[in-house]
Design brief:
By secondary structure, the chain is mainly β. Helices cover 11% and strands 28% of the residues.
């Protein structure tokens, strides 16, 4: 980037926009409002803090984690326990 230009600030520092996209496209997991989504912007591998130590600048990593407690439909007829589905994804920002 030329020195006379400055990078724009992170437009989604809390990850709310990313979390909403995850909920929108989470097809088949029941109620997307019950999907726990955590978004962290990372500059380092350790990625400390609740929101990480980075932003959405080129070269940073966005880490998205989600969890959903699945309750089997047949649990009313057969004693089946609920269980938690979890997933994680990392992507390097390349704008």
């Amino acid at each position: 980037m030329p020195s006379d230009l400055t990078a724009p600030p992170c437009w989604d520092p809390t990850g709310a926009n990313v979390a909403q996209v995850v909920r929108t496209f989470a097809v088949g997991v029941g109620y997307s409002s019950q999907l726990a989504v955590t978004v962290r912007w990372c500059r380092t591998t350790a990625c400390p803090g609740d929101q990480g130590d980075g932003d959405n600048d080129q070269g940073s990593t966005v880490r998205v984690s989600l969890a959903y407690t699945f309750q089997p439909v047949l649990a009313e007829l057969i004693p089946l326990p609920s269980f938690t589905l979890q997933g994680d994804s990392n992507l390097v920002v390349n704008t």
